[in-house]
Amino acid sequence: MSESTSDPILRIENVTKTYAGRSGLFGRAAPVQALKGVSLDVTRGQSFGLVGESGSGKTTLTRSILRLEEPTSGRILFEGQDMAKLSAKALRALRARVQIVFQDPYASLNPRMSVGQIVTEPMAIHHDLLRLSAAQQRERAAELLTLVGLGPQHLGRHPHEFSGGQRQRIGIARALASGPDLLLLDEPTSALDVSVQAQVLNLLIELQDRLGLTYFFISHDLAVVRYLCDRVALIHHGSLVEEGPTDRIFDAPQTDYARMLIGAAPELRVP
Amino acid sequence: MTVPLLDIRNLHLAMRSFEGEAHVLNGVELCVNRGEIWGLVGESGCGKSLTGLSISRLLPEPPARYISAEITLEGRDLRALSPREMQALRGKRIGMIFQDPTTNLNPTARIGTQLVDVALAAARHDPTILPPARSRRAGARALALDMMRQVGIPDPEARMMSYPHEFSGGMRQRVLIAMALIGRPDLLIADEPTTALDVSVQAQILTLLKAMVAEHDLGVILITHNLGVVAQTCSHVAVMYAGNVVERGPVRQVIERPAHPYTRALMAAIPTRDTPRGGLQGLEGTVPDLIQPPPGCRFAPRCTRATEACRAAVPPLTSQGPGHEVACLHPVTEDAPHV
Amino acid sequence: MTDAVSVPPRPDRLARALFRFRQSRLSVIGAVMVAVVLLLAVFGPMIAPYPQDIAGAVSTAERFQPPSLAHPLGTNELGQDVLSLTLGGTRVSVLAGFGVVLIGAAIGTLVGAVAGYVGGWTDEALMRLTDLTLTIPGLILAMAIAAALGPGFQNMVLAISLSWWPGYARLVRGEVLAAREEVYVTAARALGAGPGRILFRHVLPNCVSPIIVKMSLDMGFAILTVAGLGFIGIGVRPPTPEWGTLLSTSRAYMPDYWWTAMGPGLAMFIAVFGFNLLGDGLRDSLDPKGRR
Prior knowledge:
Chain A has 271 residues and is α/β, with parallel strands linked by helices. Chain A has helices spanning 58-65, 88-95, 115-125, 127-130, 134-147, 164-176, 194-211, 222-228, 246-251, 256-264, and strands at 8-19, 23-24, 27-28, 32-43, 47-51, 73-78, 81-82, 98-101, 182-186, 214-219, 231-236, 239-245.
C-alpha cells in the first residue's frame, strides 16, 4: 500500500454535478446538486473504497468516471489526461482501459446473448485496438472464463442457466476482456449470498494480485470495504466527509458521520 | 409449561415448477413464545420466506402443496381454519411486514387514509382496539395517529395527509410496521424488513422493532439473510439450509458456539474487523437439487465432517445445551474462532 | 473457486415458454384452431369437394340447395358449393392477414425503434406522425387508398398496412425506452459500443416477444378488416372466393337461404377466435408482464 499520490491512475478534481429540476405541471422543482466539489486520487495498483448511502452521489460519481454522464464542473483525469478533452476515438480507446462490474448480476447480462458472445463483445468493439480474430477472441474468452472460475464449456450457455455468483463471474470476465487497468466495482457482491460473496471477493483479490489491477470499489457495506480496500472515502450528500487509509478510518474516525456509519453496521457479535 | 404462541412441526412443502416438483421445506420445526424475536436466517432458496408465508397461509395451492404441516397459534390449528377465518386472523393476530416498503403502499392514497382503513378493518374483528371516540372513524383516526407516534414518525398529524412518495424508504417501512401492529397482533412476521434500507436507517428500524416487542409482548419472526442483524436484534435464531432448520437456540449460544458445520461456514464467510485480506472462506459446492434431494442430511455433499451415516437419513434436532438444538451427527463443539 | 465448475443444464427459454403455454387449455385450443386454419390455407383448394367451383364454375341447376350430404354447407345463388368456396377463401384471407400484420409490424418497429432510441426532436416528429395516422379511421384510409390505386389483393393489403403500423410504433417505442435503461445496455455503452450495436444487439432482440404477441393478437382483427373491405366491395374481386365477398353476396339472399352465410361466417369466427386465444396464450408465456 502506497501513500504517495505521485502517480494517481485516476484523479478527480473538484467535480460537481447539478441536475436541473424537473419541470412539472406546477413549475420547475429546485435543481439537485448530486456532487458538490469532490476531489480524490486513486493510486495505481490500489483498492480504493467509496462508501455512501443511497442518494449520497456515489452512483453519479461512478457514471461520471465512465463518462456516461458529464460533470457540471471539475475535471476527471485518467493517467493525467482530462477525459472531457479526449477525441471520440481516444475516448473509445480509454473505455477499453476503464471497465465496470455492476451490482445486479441478473440485470447486467443481456439475456438473449450467450456467455461467449457476452465475453467476446468487448473484443469485437475494440477490435481496432486488440486485433483479435474470431478464433482468437473465442480462445481468450475461454481463458477469461477459466480465470474467473468457470470454463470453456460454458461459452455456449445463456445467463439464465447460471446462479447469481456465477453470473457475477461472467460480468467480471466481460470487464476484463478488453484488458483494463482500472476496474470500477459497483457493489459487485451486494446482491449475492454471503458464502458466494466471499468467493467473489476472494476472486477479486486473486485477480488484483495476478493482473495488477486498480480497483475503485463502491459499496455501502463497511465490512466488505474494510476487507478489500487500502483506502476509503466516505461520501454523504454529494461531498466527501472523510478520506484516508482503511485502518485509520475504521479505528479512529474523525467525523460524526463516519462514527455513526461505523456504529450502525450490524456486527456479528451479540451485544 | 404453557402453550407456545406459535408452534410449527413437521412442515413439509412441495412446489410445482417447470422442472418438476421441488421438496422445498423438509420438516421445518419452530416454536415461538411471546416476547421472543426469532431470527430465521439462511441463504436464498433455503425456504425461510416460504416458512413465513406458510404460517399466514399466503402461498397459493397449487403450485404449493403441503405434504404435511402442523402449525398452531396458541393451540389453534391454523391449517384447519376456513379461508375466511384465516383472513380475520391475518388482520388481527398475525401482522406481516415485507421487504420492499414501496410496493406495499397504495401510491394514490394518503398515508392517513391507508392507516385508518387498516384500523377500521382490524376493528371489525376486535372493536376494543379503538379508543373511545365520537365515531368509529374518529376512533380509527386516533389509533392511527397513536401508532404513527409509536413508530417514531415525527409530526404525525401533518404526515397523515402525505402520500407514500413523499416519505423516505425508512419512513415508509415505519408506516408498514405501524400498519402491521395496528390490530395488536400476537405474532409479527417480518420478511427482510430492512434489506432495502441504508444501514443507518436499518439500525433505527431494528431498534424500533425491539421496542415494539418489549411494549406489546409480541412474538416476532424476523426473516433475514444477515447474521449480523440477527446477532444485534434477535433473542433466538433458527438457521435454515435447503428446507431444514439445521440449528436453533438462543442467539448467544448459536453465534458464540455454532454447532452445525453450515452455521460455521456461513459465519466464516462474513468479513469482520479481524479478517485478513484473502482470509474469508467461501462455501464450496452448490445448494442441492431440491427436486431430487440427497436422502440424508442435505448439507452432507458440501460438509467436511460428513460420514456415511450423514448420507443415510436426515439427522434429527438434538440438544446441544439449554434450548440449543442442532440437526447434525457430528456437531462442532469448540467456540467460534472469531469471538 | 469450485462453485462454478458444474452448471446443471437447464432447459432454455423456449421450453419454459412452451411449458407455461401448455398450462392453459384455452391457449392450446387456440393453437389447434390456428393450425387448422393454416393447414386449410395451404391445402384447402386441394381437399375441396368441388374444386371447379373455386375456379368460378357455375351450375344454375343446383342453385340454393340446402345443406345435404353432397353439399354439407349447401350451395349459393350460382349453384356453387359453399364449403368449397369457404375452403378456397381461406388462403386469400389468411395471406392478406399475414401480409397486413407483417408489413404493419415492420414499418411500426422501424418507426418506434428510431423514435425511442434517438429520442428528442426525432421522437417528437415520428410520434406526432403516428398520432396523426391513428386519427384517420383505418377502414376509411384503406378505402381511399383502394379507390386511388384500384381494387385488388396487393393494393388492399398495402392499404390496410398503411393504417396498421401506428400500434406497433407505439409498442416498440415503449419497449425500446424501457430496454434502453437496462443495466446490460449501460454495460455495452461503458464498453464503448456504438448506437447500431446497442440497438440491434441489445435493445431490439429484447423487444421481440411483445411484438410477436401483438402480431398474433392482431391477426384475427386483420382478417376481419380484410373481410370488411371485401364486404363493401373494394377487396378481392369475384370469382376469387374471399370470406368478406362471400358474406356480402349472401346478404341479399337472407334469411331464406341462410346457409350461404354460414360457411364464411363460421370460418371467420374460427380464424379470429383461434388467433386471439393463441395471442393471449403467447402473451402469458412470452411476455407475462404484458398481462393486465
